[in-house]
What does this fold into?
Amino acid sequence: MAVTDAKVKAWGNSMGIIIPRWIIDEELIEVGDDVVIEVHKKKKLKDLFGTLRDWKIDSQKMKDELRKGWE
It folds into this structure.
């Protein structure tokens, strides 16, 4: 299975993704072949800021846990 990042582009009233040549060669894809595409939107770094705002942890408990590995 080949994995790559791709940019979605407008194609008439639809959207399209271009399959890179190296994937076509590796998977032996030909015109008319059926393929399976798994889609996951790539997260932007700015979307992650503030996601742990309500996350609370006891700093002393965290230090104790880290020190266990030092023994």
